[in-house]
Amino acid sequence: MSLALPGIGVSRGIAIGKAHVLQRGSIEVLESVLPPHLIENEVNRFLQAVQNARQQLESLRERIPPGTRADIAAFIDTHRLMLDDATLVTTPVELIRELGCNAEWALKLQRDAVVEVFDRMDDPYLRTRRDEVDHVINSILRTLLETVENESHGDADVLDQAIVLADNLTPAETVLLEHQGIAGFATAYGGPLSHTAILARSMQIPAIVGAYSLQDYIHDGETVILDGVQGVLIAGPDANTLQHYRERQQQEQQRRLDLGRLADTPAVSRDAVPITLMANIELPEDIKVVSQSSASGVGLYRTEFLFMNRIEPPGEDEQYEVYMSVIEALGGRPLTIRTLDMGADKEIDSGRKAGCNNPALGLRAIRLCLKDLALFRPQLRAILRASAHGPVRMMIPMLSNTHELHQVLSLVNETRNALQRESHAFAPDLPIGGMIEVPAAALTAADFARHLDFLSIGTNDLIQYALAIDRVDEEVTYLYDPLHPAVLRLIRMTIDAGRAAGIPVAMCGEMAGDPRYTRLLLGLGLREFSMHHTALQEVKNVINTSTIGKLEPLVAELLNNTEPGRIPGRVDSLNQDLH
Ligand code: PEP
Ligand code: MG
C-alpha cells in the first residue's frame, strides 16, 4: 500500500528512486571494565576499527568522479590524515591499557578532551574544526559498533540516484551528496529559505523539507517518489501512481525546454523599459550553466560555499584563482562577489551553538568578518586583485549600521594601500555595494546609499528579521510572508533611497526569482533582479508581458493597504490582468 507524506516542496522536479535513510546523531557509548587478559584484544579491535575507517575513506576517495572540486578530495584527505594522528589513535590505546576499559569508552574520553580544547579556542573559524574531529571519531566508533558509515561520506554507489532522507542536512552536506549523484532529498526539518533549500534549487535537485516523521514511515531501500512541486513524498507507489509521476517528470522536462527557448530574448517590458536579469551562484562550477545562460552577469556570488567541507579556509591565492576562473567564464559580464556570509544555517561554529540560541542574530556575515580579520583580509585582497581582470563588484552582507560599513571601507582602503606597496594590480574604483537585509538597514538605506555604489535587497533575511521568524524553522514557514505590508514598505524605502542617491538597487533574495512577485516588484520600481539561473526565463517571460507604466499606480495604491489579507488577492489580479 502506498503512503503519502506531506512536506514543503522547495525545489521543483520529480525524483523516483530508492530511499536512502541517513543514520546520524550522536552515538551512545557505554563504559565496561575488561579483565586484564582481554586488554590487548581490545587494543587490536580498536586498531582494526581505525584501519577499517581508513579503508572506507580511501575507497570513497578513489570513487570521486573526475572533475570534482579539488577541495572535496582535499577534505577527505584531511580526514584520512587525522586517522594517522597520535591524538586520535595512540592516546585511546594508552587509555584502554591504563583504565582497562573498552575501546568505545577510551575513544569517547579522548573525544571529550579534544572537544574541550576546541571549545576553548577564541577563533570562531578554528572552533569549527571540532566538527571535523567529531566526524572522524564517529567514523571509528561506527566501525567499532559494526554499523556502516552511511553519512554524506558514505558509500557512493549506494547514494547514486538515491532519494536521501534525513532529519536535516547542512548546506555543506548537500554539496557532498550532490557530488555522489543523489536524485533528490527530503528532510524532516528545515524551511524553504534555508541555504540547503537554496542550494537544491540551484543544483536542480528535487527536494522537500518539513516532512515530519519521514524516518518513521519510510524504510531504507524502499521505492519512493519525491514531488518537489507539490511537496509530497510517496512511499511504495503502485504501478498507476508510478506511471502518473513518470509522465509528470516528462512534462517538467518539457517545461524547462520550452522556457529555455526564451534564452536569447532580452528582458524588456511592453513599454520598453529594459530590465537587468542576473544570476545567483553558490559554487564556482555553477558558472558553467550561468555563462551559457542569458543572465547579464552574476548579481550574487555566495563565496561562503568555498569555505565549507574543508579544514583550512581558502587562502588569498586560492580565492584569487577561483574568482579569476569565474571572471573568465563570464567573459566580460559583471561579477558581484559577496564577502563571506558564514554563520546561522551556514555553520561556522556548532561548538558555540550550545550557548547561542539565536545564531541568525549572532556572529554572522560581516559581523564575523570584522571580528576575525585573519579570515576577512585574505578575501578582501583576493577580491581586489581579481578586480584588475574584469568587471568585479564587491558586496557586503548583513550590514545593520553604518559603523560596520565605515569599518569595511577603511579596511578596503588599507588593503588597497598594501597591494599598491606590493605592486599588485587592482581596480582603483572597484564598486562596493551593501546588502539590505536587516530592517534597520532598510529604514536607514539613505545613509548607506551615500557611501556605497549599489544596494542589493536580500529578502530572505529581510523577511526573516522584519517578521521575527526563523527562515529555517518549518513550524513558522506559514508566517514567512513576502507580501506583508511591512516587508513591501521596507523594499520600497530601499528602492527609493537608491534612486534618490542615484545608485542602482537590485534584489537577490528568493523573492526576485519567484514569477508570482515579478509584476509587484516592477511596480515597486525594481529594475535589477538576481536569482538562481533556473528561474531566469520564467521571470523574463512575465517581464516581457508587463507594462510598467500601468503597474506603478496600481502597486502604489496596493501599498496603502493596511489589511495584510487583501494584498495577495491584489497581487493575483496584477498577475492575471493584461498589464
Ligand atoms: C538574502 O538574505 O536574501 C540573501 C540573498 O542572502 P542569503 O540567502 O545568502 O542569506
Ligand atoms: Mg542574507
| Separation, N- and C-terminal Cα atoms | 48 Å
Strand share of the residues?
A: 5-15%
Q: What is the helix content?
A: 40-55%
| Major sheet attributes | 8 strands, mixed
Helix- and strand-based class?
Answer: alpha/beta
Strand order of the largest sheet: 1-8-7-3-4-5-6-2
Overall, the morphology is: globular
C-alpha-based Rg, rounded:
25 Å
**Distinct compounds present:** phosphoenolpyruvate, magnesium ion
Q: Using DSSP, what is the number of strands?
A: 16
What's the mean pLDDT score? 88
How many DSSP helices? 24
Enumerate the spans where pLDDT stays under 50 for 5 or more consecutive residues.
147-154, 349-354
Describe the secondary-structure layout:
Layout: E1 3-6, E2 8-11, E3 14-21, H1 39-62, H2 70-82, H3 86-99, H4 103-119, H5 124-127, H6 129-144, H7 156-159, E4 163-166, H8 171-179, E5 184-187, H9 195-203, E6 207-209, H10 214-217, E7 223-227, E8 232-235, H11 239-260, E9 276-281, H12 287-292, E10 298-302, H13 316-330, E11 335-338, H14 365-371, H15 373-386, E12 392-396, H16 402-421, E13 432-436, H17 439-443, H18 445-449, E14 454-457, H19 459-467, H20 485-501, E15 505-507, H21 518-524, E16 528-532, H22 536-543, H23 548-559, H24 567-576
Helix pairs in contact: 1-2, 1-3, 1-6, 3-4, 4-6, 8-9, 13-15, 15-16, 19-20, 21-23, 23-24
This protein binds phosphoenolpyruvate and magnesium ion.
